[in-house]
Design goal:
Beta-lactamase; Beta-lactam/transpept; four-stranded antiparallel beta sheet; single chain; 3 domains; 19 helices; elongated; Penicillin-binding protein 2a (Domain 2); transmembrane; transmembrane helix; PBP_dimer; PCN-bd_Tpept; five-stranded antiparallel beta sheet; 609 residues; alpha+beta
Length: 609
Amino acid sequence: MRRTRTSSPRAGRPRLGSGRGSSPFRLRIGFLVIAVVLSVFAGRLVQLQGLDPNSYAAMAAAEGTAVVALPATRGEILDRDGEPLADSVAGLMIIADPGLTAAQAPALATLLARRLDLDYVETLERLRVPDSQFQYVARQLPAAQAQRVVDEATEAGFVGLTTRDDPIRTYPAGDVAANVLGFLGRPSESGRARPLAGLEATFGDWLAGHDGEARYQVGDGNRLPLGESRLQEPEDGQDLTTTLDSNLQWYVQRALRDTVRKAGGESGIAIVMDSSSGEVLAMADHPTYDASDPEATPDQELYKSRAVTDIYEPGSVEKVLTMAALIDAGKLTMDTRFSVPGELATDDTVVHDYWEHGVLRLTTAGIVAKSSNVGTVLASEYFAKGQLRSYLEQFGITRKTGVGLAGEQAGLLPTAAQWTDATAARVAFGQSLSVTALQMTAAVNTIANGGVRVDPSVIEGSAVTDGGATVGTEQATSRRVVSEEAARQTSLMMEQVLDPEEGSAPAAAVPGYRVAGKTGTAQRVNEEGFYDGSTTVSFGGFAPADDPRLTVYVAVHDPRAGSGGGSTAGPAFAKIMGVALRHYGIPPTGSKPEKVATEWGPGDDNLAR
């Protein structure tokens, strides 16, 4: 018989013992709590990763992370033979972890200030910087000195000091080419030393490279061996090779210094250039300074290269440009004859020569040899309107040379609207226009180079300035300014300048060599634009005259009264040119100077004036 199940009298009601505390109910409550907690975490995750990820990531990365700067080694500045003019040697920085040094800061700051000649208050502040694990204490210290100080601090019981590589900029030759090289200032708060002058400043990025850094996790002030780390290697700067010859540069600076001092001058400039390539072999300024210790020379005007930054009226050296242009234009030759009076009236002044004379029978060569202002003005009257100005522009008078030195000036030439007959007369003999010494050297070198002007260069190869310009010998261009015949005749006339009987500068001669040159004496203009009574004396030329290899230009500003281009700058030119010729082993050509007529007799024909 089939058994049937008897129903409970409380069918449909929960059995005894299955109330609120029963297992299914507790599970439902548990799931609800878990869901709420997960929702909170999910919301927080959305906030961290979606709404403000950068700030929270930075906070997480900073917690327990040390950052150490890895300085790049600055590129060297080299002379043409690879000798360092500016280089970087091994040095160390001392860094502190304020998390460890703060507790002992007063005593540690006292030790550091005494040993390293640091400011006590500033050092104390660095040792106490809150929430920091890396602070510079001292930069670019000799390695032995830095390590000795850290060892002493450690032995005294101080903790939290370490050292890192920090190359030191040095200038092995002291003042040699300092005005061209420039120098670096003290390291800034960011750790970089700021370039303050010369090539160091112009090619700052090229030389500097890019610093690297190391990041690693720390705990209790110590690096965690298994902690996360990241290394970005520094990228060292590129070297910069110049066209300068450090040995010749040293001599030129000394010869210029002696000349300026002997003449009682305010300052001076001397430049030596390779005649065919335009490479600057030496570019000297006086006064100068020691790039290794610029603070010893507080006058910041001395830091610049005045060969490119200062403009002045060139005086009679400019006459060779005038005469070369006239010959090129077919207006005259070196034999053209002139009757030259003692003075000549122009629109607004009377032109005189530096010596008193009556009427002279001079050829064009004689005008150059004796440096006659009056004769030059008479010759310049053959120019068509605007013709001389156009030639001077081609010689590079109104353009920067673009050698890559900061502060370079372009020179000044009267505009076409200002170009009156009186202005043209003054410009013809080197007044009422302004040039830089490097511009004038390149212009004279155009005659040496057979009438072809080549851009001067201070950088070998090519390099990029901070302004984005690519400069150097690989970028140098050339252009013909006057014909080869015009340059030849001008060179022959310039040789007469050194003739002991006919010329104005026999003291500029170099024994054994044929030399072509020209004197210059010009009035100086003050800040108000008026002549102040002082002068600039100069001499520019090249040798050997019949096969030019080197061009030299010397200028002395504000020498004592009575100084002249032939008597003051000429002897300096002879010393520098003589040493340079021997330095490069350039032999005399063995030929004799051609005899060129400088005067003419009463019965001669071909009288121009």
